[in-house]
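INFO batch 0412 | record 1 of 1 | parsing
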Amino acid sequence: MPSLPVQKLVDLPLFDPDFRADLKAGIHSMPASKWLGLEVQGFSPEGRSRIELPIRVELSFDGRILQGGIVGVLADYAGVSAATCTLAEGWAASTIGFEVHNVAPAKGERLIAIGQASHVGKSHAVSRAEVYAVQGGLVTLVCIATTTCRPFEVKRA
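INFO prediction complete | emitting tokens
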């Protein structure tokens, strides 16, 4: 079986860290995001996201490799936030499904997830997410996922 391609960290896209500051703040305020240690790196108006997760022993199943469900959660955040960043102000989205394919062990210093909105409509949005493991400036693809979410208008009290 051929090995998975390894890229340089500088090859992964960067997005505007100030675009959709409200969405970034919302993700950072979630208790689950705080516990995981998620760090939103940026979004783009075209529906792309970049979110990082430090690899910690308590998130692994053996002290080295991140448990697959945690990788899936990161992919979900990246995919849904990519779709959400295309919505009008005052709108958000919630996950209604995601499918995860772990293709390599998630080990290294941290994970970086890149989300890309594929379809954003009134009733649902579908995105793709790729998760990469970072080790010493090199990245390896460890997960490919699709996410589906439901856009909704946020009701303010």
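INFO post-check: The chain is about 20% helix and 40% strand.
INFO record closed
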